[in-house]
Specification:
It is built from no helices and eleven strands. It is mostly beta strands and 114 residues long. The strands form two sheets. Strands 2, 4, 5, 6, 9, 10 and 11 form a seven-stranded mixed beta sheet that branches. Strand 5 and strand 6 form a beta hairpin.
Length: 114
């Protein structure tokens, strides 16, 4: 089974940027879509952005215009470029590979200070 490993999280001031990476241990081409989700303390896990195998993207309203999802099939890696970060973006960010089921990474913490 493919495993996903996220990286790139950290502490950043409001208005700053971070780039998250999700490296897969196998090919991501076979998955219908790849996505980034986030979960803040005491809240449910929500979709942030997704990208299909054909490159179509979808974003949560709260991040439109600030976040960009992309994929590099040759490197089996998915990225999330996050700009103009806000304190409310603070959460654990998870990568997911979506096919018949979903495969999740372990998550990476993003903390945005005001």
């Amino acid at each position: 089974q493919v495993r996903l490993v996220e990286s790139g999280g950290g502490l950043v001031q409001a208005g700053g940027s971070l780039r998250l990476s999700c490296a897969a241990s196998g090919s991501i081409r076979s998955f219908n879509a790849m996505g980034w989700y986030r979960q803040a303390p005491g809240k449910q896990r929500d979709l942030v952005a997704s990208i299909t195998s054909s490159g179509s993207t979808n974003y949560a309203d709260s991040v439109k215009g600030r976040f960009t999802i992309s994929r590099d099939n040759a490197k089996n890696t998915v990225y999330l470029q996050m700009n103009s970060l806000k304190p409310e973006d603070t959460a654990v960010y998870y990568c997911a590979a979506m096919g018949r089921g979903a495969i999740w990474g372990q998550g990476t913490q993003v903390t945005v200070s005001s």
